Amino acid sequence: MVLGLRGIIDVQGGIETHARRLYPLLARLGCDVEIVQRSPYYPRGRRRSEWRRLALTHLWSPRTRIVETAVHTLLGVLYAAVKRPDVLHLHAVGPALLAPLARLFGLRVVVTHHGADYEREKWGPLTKAVLRIGERLGVGFANRPIVVSPVLKDVVERLYGVQATLIQNGAPLATPRRTRLTLRRFDLRSGRYVLCVARLDPGKRQHDLITAFKSARPPGWKLVIVGQIEAGDHYCQELVAQTADDSTIVLTGYQSGPTLQELYSHAGLFVLPSAGEGHPIALLEAAVYEVPILASAIPANLVLPLPRDRYFPVGDTQALAHKLRTFTQRKATAPAETRAVHAAIRATYSWREAAEATGSVYRYVARGRWQHG
Question: Could you tell me which CATH class the domain 181-348 is placed in?
C-alpha cells in the first residue's frame, strides 16, 4: 500500500511523477500495489478504481497545506491498520511523521525520503521543525528507509546513524514528437524557447528565471513555464502578475502526456533554477530528450553528469541571465554534448532497476528480514 502522494494520475509533483514511473513497473513485476489518493483531486466522475494494474483508493483530505497531508496520512494509516497490507510505503518526510503509529498498529513500514522538505522557502519555522521531526521519525521507525540520492543517503546515515537503501529515480524513455500542435497552441517556434517544468513553488524559484529571462531578452526566444496554476495560491498569483503583458513568457499550466512530450521535443534550452531538490526528475527527462540544460548549483543537481559551465548559483539572476544569453545562441548548443549527457543519464538512471530494487526491499521487509526502530 502506497501513501503520501496526492494522486498518481494527472497530478503534478516530484513524488507524483516518481509514483507514475515506478509503480506500473512494480505491478508488471508481480507486485500487488494499492495507491491511496486524496479524493479532492479527483471529482467523483473522474475517479477510477484501477490504472495500469494498480488498485486506486480515494480517501478524503482537506485542501489546506500541511493539514491536507497530515489528515490524509492519518486516515491512510488507519485504513492500512484495517486492510493489513504486507507493506505500507510512506513517501516524504511529512507523511513519515505517522511511521511510529503505523508500527504501533503492527504494520511493516517502508519510508522513502525524497528531499529535505524542511528547507523549502514557503514553510515557517514551526512547519520546518515538524518536518525535521518527520525525517527523524521516518528513518528511525521504518523497517527500511529508502533515499533517492547519494546526498540524502549521507544525511540520513550521518545524522541518524541509520543505514538507508539508495534507489535513485530513473530516466524515462524519450518519446520525441515531431508534431507541433502544442507549439501552435502557445505560439512557439521549435528550438526557440526556454523550458522549465516544475511545480509552481517558491523553492523552485521560477521568479528568478523570469527575472533573468527579462534581463537577457534573447532575440526571438520565449520562456515557457509548465506547472499547475492553482487558484488562490499566493505564489501562482505572483508569477501571473510578474508575466502579465509580456508575450515572450508563457505560463502553460499543468501539462502531461503527448503535450509535455512535444514541449520537451522542441525546446531549445531547459532550465531548473530550484533552491532545493531530492533527485530532480525533470532534469533527467530533459536530458533524455537531448535538450541543453542549465541548473542551479545545488548538491542534488551537481551529482548529475552535466558540464560544469551548465550550473549557476541559486538566486543569482545576473549569472543566470548571462548563461541564458550565452546558451540561446545556436552555436553554443553542441549536439555531441547533449548526446553525451543523454547517454550518461541513460546508463546511470533506470526506472526498471529502481522498480526491481524497491520490490526487493518490499520482499525483505514483508518477511521480517530488516527491522530497526
Answer: alpha beta
